[in-house]
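Re: the 257-residue chain
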Amino acid sequence: MIPGPPADSPGANIYPRPDEAPQWLRTLIDAARAGTLTSTVTRQLGPAGRFAAARRRRQAAVLMALSGDPAATELPEDAGLLLTHRTPTMRAHAGQVAFPGGRIDAADVSAIDAALREAWEETGLDRHDVTPLAQLDRVAIRASGAPVHPVLAYRHRLGEVGVASPLENDDVFVAPLADLADPRQRLEVGLRGWSGPAFWVRDYLVWGFTGALIDGLLRAGGWERPWDAETVLDLRAALDRSRNNEAPGGGAMWDAH
C-alpha cells in the first residue's frame, strides 16, 4: 500500500495527444483511430447494440495505461500494462484482475477524466504522468450490457503506483507485454457456452472483459504471437489453479472488467 497519493486534478489532462506517443505505439494508435481495436474486442464480448437500456446511465471508463522506452521504435523489453487485482471481499468484480477504472460520475468532464480519476483513486497514478492517446468506442460488459469506455494512455513518467484503496484492490502491478504475448501464458477459457481469451500473469488468471481488451491490444499493436486458441479450458478449473480467489459460478463473475 502506498501512502496517501497527492491530490488529483479533476478536469486536467483530458484531451488525447496521440502525436506525443513513442514510435512503438503508433500501430496501436492507428488501429484505435480506425476502430479496429474496438471491433476485435466486440467480437469477443458482443455488439454495442447489447447495451441494456437500464444500464445506459451507468457508464464506466477504464484506463489502459502502457509504459515502456520512449525512444524505442519496436516493442521494447520494458513495455508493460498497468493492472489491478480486485479485493476478494468486494461486492462486484471480487478477485478479478482489471484495469483501473469505474463508473463515470456526474462531475467528470469526460470518460478520459473519469478513467484518470479512478486510476488515481485506486493506484495513486498521477494524471500528469500520463499522456492520453485515444478514447475507444464503448464496449459492453457481457452479462449486464453496461457500457464501458476504454481509454488508451502512455505513462511518460513512471511515478509511484500501488494499492491506494485497499477496499477496492489488494495488488497493483505492471504486466510485461512480452509475458502477455507469450503463447505459454495464453489460453482460451469457457463456461456455459461462452469462451474467451485469458492470460496467466503472476499466477493470476486474467479473463473476461479485461482479457478481451488485452487480446485486442496485442492484435492491434502487432504484438500477438501464434497461440492455441482452439483448445477451450474450463473457466472454473482455471480459476481453481489461480490466485484470484474469485468464486466461480454466479452472475457477478460475468461482469468481469
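The radius of gyration is 17 Å.
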